[in-house]
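$ fold --in a.seq
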Amino acid sequence: MKFIVSSTALSSHLQAVSRVINSKNSLPILDCFLFRLEDGTLSVTVSDSETTMDTTIEVNDSDVNGSFAIPAKTMLDALKELPEQPLSFQVNAETYEIEIQYMNGKYSLMGQNAEEYPRSAALGENSVVRVQMDAQVLLAGINRAIFATADDELRPVMNGVYFDITIDDITMVASDGHKLVRCKTLAAKGTERAAFILPKKPANMLKNLLPKESGSVTIEFDERNAIFTLENYRMVCRLIEGRYPNYNSVIPQNNPYRVTVDRAQLMGALRRVSIFSSQSSSLIKLRVQENQIVVSAQDIDFSTSAEETLICQYSGEAMSIGFKSTFLIDILNNISATEVVVELADPSRAGVIVPVEQAQNEDLLMLLMPMMLND
């Protein structure tokens, strides 16, 4: 079995899918790429038994169809050192000896039987829901939400991005109990009411693949698994099972205090002032009063404190609220608007942060639970 393939094309595809591979695998064959040659097209599969990803690469001068597994780390490291050139693969179908010839040298390595590679999960025929989303719309939603997912063994449903699909829109939600992101897009919708929870690892895989994609992504899912079909990649992943909490019920409505502030200025002030906050709590205090916001922090143990005043648009009673600075910086970092509105009700209720100008066809809202102030 032989074929010729471009070294850089092969390397870029292998690097893109290799993130699926775990550092420790229950099955030794999962340390390999599965190569399958069929009618002049090479498909490469990787899996960690819960997430499986395929990609296809055009090859030249292929003779017979066939498949074999090849050690992933060796292959990646060897290709990294090669400049662009054709690679000629020759595989012994009986012994799985692999010889790769390049411009002035050759690699010899041992492959494995492809039959040992686990099959990817199939979807149930009757219960499949299908939606299509523009690749960049899906990327924007995942990018906005993924930082707010939890790492909670007791509540696994919080450890992924929740897709809430209706006939009007698709909303992507993530929350760890302290912060919450709700990113609704009107640029995609379903044909029926449906939902699924995408785990963090496959969400990160998509985050890495989607920037280079144009066109739309097809998402098919049932109660247990989802398939994402991109232009050159296909990912099958196990979903998180369980009921996602009612996220709308935790968002406070009718917040009387509305502060409009420059996002970059507020983030800069938070970064500077938070250096002086207590290391254990990272507590910063925001005091809003007529057209100004005072950001302050102190660490009583080390007798350090800092305070900075920013101009904002605000008319109303003076009010103070405490937040964890790292969480608030994370939230502001994941909004792209120039100005944000911070909506507050009282010091014990969550603050709602929204961009002054929403992106086209998008409705983005972020929420942060407050911390108790000592004074």
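$ fold --in b.seq
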Amino acid sequence: MINVLIADSQLLTREGIAFILSGMTDIHIIKQITNRVELEQMIIAYKPDVIIVDHLDTAEVKRIGARFDFAHMLVLSNKQQKSEILELIGLGIKAQVSKDCSRQELIQAVYAAAKGKQFFCESILNTLFGNKIRGKSIDDIPLLSSRETEIIHLIAEGRTNKEIAEKLFLSIHTVKTHRKNIIKKLGFTFKNTAEFASLIQSTL
């Protein structure tokens, strides 16, 4: 059973999510809350497998991620900029859907989040990749590995390849390879490496 906590200030959004997920026999809505003041209290009380929240700021993501590693966050948001989506990816958020996603996408996102897997709805993918993903299924989009996510954090801190290599006990060549793979997966060309790093840094 996947236990889900819904945190959203909008009544219709909360009720809509709960209604859609209530049709799934292996998903249980344990609580709906209206504000973030209650969020950490409810996480402690109910220990949810998945926390569905509207857009989080950087400080909240870091705080919740540090305190509650047993729960996975699914971010539900209105239209986001590419930089905002990348910011959340860099902070380790693997599941993101927009509020105009389909019923099936929401359900798939919950299942993916519960397993700690990455999931983006079509709207988020279009914002990230544009026409590059047309004709592909969501499963065709490469996922970031845990090492790649770790390196994104260090890039965002302004670390050089040498500093990243020393911190992670890797060779500089290995770090460069990881950076190229990250850029390729997120739809950036190699010539935009500096732009990518500065974009992530500017959103933190």
